[in-house]
């Protein structure tokens, strides 16, 4: 623990000038450097990405939380941030895409800028400086002038030489009033394997040793090129000033009432969690646990059966198509889940979970048998790419909610359900693709499986309804 305890809610937000600017690598490098120095670091991710938070958690030891201005109300964002950051030494918030990218160009909703305004956070820009010098100053100045965000510094990434770095610093110093906080050279130590939906999840790295070495390399590059002590001073000086008596009282009340709300302490939810399935919002798990449900993780790849005494199953997203041999060969697990479905007990599957519950998954000209709850197959390929927000309504009662309820979510996949013989859908989407013809959420007995990913803070009745069905 550092000798001097950090002030309450010292925070910095790292935002890119665009996607692939290097903000994730910079974020995890700074987190690792802070952790090495004894700081208790709390990570947050703007937007709905699952993968970046997996690295945050691996490095800091603390679950990382998503903050999204489209799915979450402003008060929910503030409450989540205050509650999760109040006991840490420092919070690091990683942005999404460029500072202003959101749901569309006519609004700030869904953008990193929106979150910075809601939480009163200082911004450090991460700019890809390849092949630019004076233009870098124009980029920084343009971002600053568009809406006057509180940008307190810039870090240039992927610089080519000391001379290049000097030109960047002089250009920004001459044409803007923003400080250059550091420059990070091109370095193969910073390379992290990419995939069609982003970085490879931390859970999937070949071994614990491999990811530890990769994080160590990234940390060393940041320590060599950034003044970590100065970044801490900035976070303390510009700590988030949001103060909301109503939110603080609600957090205190929620803490007091947790025991009273735990009406399902003997109910167990089996959570599919391994290399194939690991896309979960920590807030979803927290809400289920706060209701008293016991979460027990299991592996559809390695375990023979679902956990003993399971009352409900939650199968999140991931990359099941990359582990078809293991999933197909685990016949006892598939039968265990199928028998659970036949017993009319609740199963909730999202995206990868939906695919796993189909008859089969087809990937790279190979068709592999899956659980078979639904008659159809999931075909995987780049041409099926769907990424974006969804909103819609419930058109059939199901294990999460009743007909007529409105909701928001998002889609994040490279697959399509084909040869579907099922016709009972729970959701009708006004925005989004769904499974077919803007319909989503297949229902069969007490099973609900959808492409839409749901963040339970956008509708807290969903987890309540789920545990009541256990």
Automatic annotation (TrEMBL):
UniProt function note: Catalyzes the ATP-dependent amidation of the two carboxylate groups at positions a and c of cobyrinate, using either L-glutamine or ammonia as the nitrogen source.
Other remarks in the entry: The a and c carboxylates of cobyrinate are activated for nucleophilic attack via formation of a phosphorylated intermediate by ATP. CbiA catalyzes first the amidation of the c-carboxylate, and then that of the a-carboxylate.
Alphabetized GO MF terms: ATP binding; cobyrinic acid a,c-diamide synthase activity
InterPro entries recorded: CbiA/CobB_synth, Class_I_gatase-like, CobQ/CobB/MinD/ParA_Nub-bd_dom, GATase_3, P-loop_NTPase
EC number: 6.3.5.11
PANTHER family for the chain: COBYRINATE A,C-DIAMIDE SYNTHASE
UniProt domain CobB/CobQ-like glutamine amidotransferase: residue ranges: 268-460
HAMAP family in alphabetical order: CobB_CbiA (MF_00027)
UniProt entry keywords in alphabetical sequence: ATP-binding, Cobalamin biosynthesis, Glutamine amidotransferase, Ligase, Magnesium, Nucleotide-binding
Pathway where it operates: Cofactor biosynthesis; adenosylcobalamin biosynthesis; cob(II)yrinate a,c-diamide from sirohydrochlorin (anaerobic route): step 10/10
UniProt domain comment: Comprises of two domains. The C-terminal domain contains the binding site for glutamine and catalyzes the hydrolysis of this substrate to glutamate and ammonia. The N-terminal domain is anticipated to bind ATP and cobyrinate and catalyzes the ultimate synthesis of the diamide product. The ammonia produced via the glutaminase domain is probably translocated to the adjacent domain via a molecular tunnel, where it reacts with an activated intermediate.
Active-site feature positions: 351 (nucleophile)
Catalysis performed (reactions): cob(II)yrinate + 2 L-glutamine + 2 ATP + 2 H2O = cob(II)yrinate a,c diamide + 2 L-glutamate + 2 ADP + 2 phosphate + 2 H(+)
Range of residues in the leader sequence: none
Enzyme class at the top of the EC tree: ligase
SUPFAM superfamilies per UniProt: Class I glutamine amidotransferase-like, P-loop containing nucleoside triphosphate hydrolases
Region called Disordered, residue ranges: 1-21
Domain CobQ/CobB/MinD/ParA nucleotide binding: 13-196
Cofactor(s) of this protein: Mg(2+)
Marked site: Increases nucleophilicity of active site Cys: 453
Superkingdom, taxonomy of origin: Archaea
Record protein name field: Cobyrinate a,c-diamide synthase
GO BP terms: cobalamin biosynthetic process
Organism: Methanohalarchaeum thermophilum
Family: Belongs to the CobB/CbiA family.
């Amino acid at each position: 623990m550092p000798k001097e305890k950090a002030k309450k809610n010292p925070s910095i937000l790292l935002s890119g000038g665009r996607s692939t600017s290097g903000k994730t690598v910079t974020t995890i490098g700074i987190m690792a450097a802070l952790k090495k120095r004894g700081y208790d670091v709390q990570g947050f991710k703007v937007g709905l990405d699952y993968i970046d938070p997996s690295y945050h958690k691996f490095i800091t030891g603390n679950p990382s939380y998503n903050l999204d201005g489209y799915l979450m109300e402003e008060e929910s964002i503030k409450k989540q941030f205050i509650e999760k950051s109040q006991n840490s030494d420092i919070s690091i918030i990683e942005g999404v895409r460029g500072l202003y990218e959101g749901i569309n160009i006519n609004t700030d909703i869904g953008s990193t800028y929106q979150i910075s305004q809601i939480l009163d956070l200082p911004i450090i820009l991460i700019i890809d400086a390849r092949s630019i010098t004076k233009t870098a100053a124009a980029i920084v100045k343009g971002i600053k002038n568009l809406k006057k965000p509180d940008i307190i510094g810039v870090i240039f990434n992927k610089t080519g030489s000391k001379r290049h770095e000097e030109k960047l610093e002089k250009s920004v110093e001459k044409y803007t009033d923003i400080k250059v906080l550091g420059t990070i050279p091109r370095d193969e130590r910073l390379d992290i394997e990419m995939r069609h939906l982003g970085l490879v999840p931390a859970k999937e790295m070949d071994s614990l040793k491999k990811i530890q070495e990769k994080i160590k390399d990234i940390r060393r590059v940041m320590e060599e090129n950034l003044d970590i002590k100065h970044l801490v001073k900035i976070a303390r000086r510009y700590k988030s000033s949001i103060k909301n008596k109503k939110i603080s009282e609600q957090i205190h009340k929620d803490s007091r009432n947790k025991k009273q709300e735990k009406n399902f302490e003997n109910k167990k939810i089996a959570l599919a969690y391994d290399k194939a399935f690991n896309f979960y919002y920590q807030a979803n798990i927290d809400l289920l646990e706060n209701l008293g449900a016991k979460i027990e993780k299991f592996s559809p790849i390695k375990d023979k059966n679902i956990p003993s005494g399971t009352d409900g199953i939650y199968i999140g997203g991931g990359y099941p198509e990359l582990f078809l041999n293991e999933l197909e060969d685990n016949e006892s697990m598939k039968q265990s889940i199928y028998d659970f479905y036949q017993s009319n007990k609740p199963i909730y599957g999202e995206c990868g979970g939906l695919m796993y519950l189909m008859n089969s998954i087809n990937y790279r000209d190979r068709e592999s048998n899956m659980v078979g709850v639904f008659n159809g197959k999931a075909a995987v390929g780049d041409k099926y790419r769907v990424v974006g927000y969804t909103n819609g309504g419930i058109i059939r009662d199901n294990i999460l909610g009743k007909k007529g309820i409105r909701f928001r979510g998002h889609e994040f996949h490279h697959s399509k359900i084909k040869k579907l013989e099922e016709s009972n859908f729970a959701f009708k989407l006004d925005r989004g693709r769904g499974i077919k013809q803007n319909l989503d959420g297949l229902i069969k007995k007490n099973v609900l499986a959808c492409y839409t990913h749901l963040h339970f803070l956008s509708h807290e009745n969903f987890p309540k309804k789920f545990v009541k069905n256990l």
